[in-house]
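Dear H.,

Thanks for agreeing to be a second pair of eyes. The structure we're designing against is below in token form, covering all 113 positions.
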């Protein structure tokens, strides 16, 4: 993929808009589930976004990495907190996770800070 972070987020939003048009029931169900997962409860939304960064990195979803870095920063996470969350993902994901941290996550931090 190796695209610009802003382009990846834009592409994701555009694609989700198309899914919304063509399969509104699916998108409604997804949005409801996603919103429920990020409701602030015992964990602040910032920490949920940091968890999202780690999971996205571990499962190697470049779109997800970008959106969760962007959202984590918007929720007040620092670069250092994002890198610590990424470090946990690297501990689980090994060399492939380190490759995505070194490229996709770093580009996203630079783009969205």
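And this is the sequence the design step returned. I haven't edited it by hand at all.
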């Amino acid at each position: 993929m190796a695209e610009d972070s802003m382009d990846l987020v834009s592409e994701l939003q555009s694609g989700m808009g198309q899914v919304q048009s063509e399969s509104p029931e699916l998108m409604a169900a997804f949005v409801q589930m996603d919103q429920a997962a990020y409701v602030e409860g015992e964990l602040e939304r910032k920490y949920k976004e940091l968890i999202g960064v780690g999971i996205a990195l571990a499962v190697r979803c470049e779109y997800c990495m970008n959106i969760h870095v962007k959202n984590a920063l918007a929720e007040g996470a620092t670069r250092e907190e994002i890198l610590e969350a990424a470090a946990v993902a690297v501990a689980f994901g090994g060399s492939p996770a380190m490759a995505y941290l070194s490229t996709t996550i770093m580009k996203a931090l630079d783009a969205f800070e």
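Two observations from my side: The chain is about 85% helix and 0% strand. The longest helix spans residues 79-112.

Warmly,
E.
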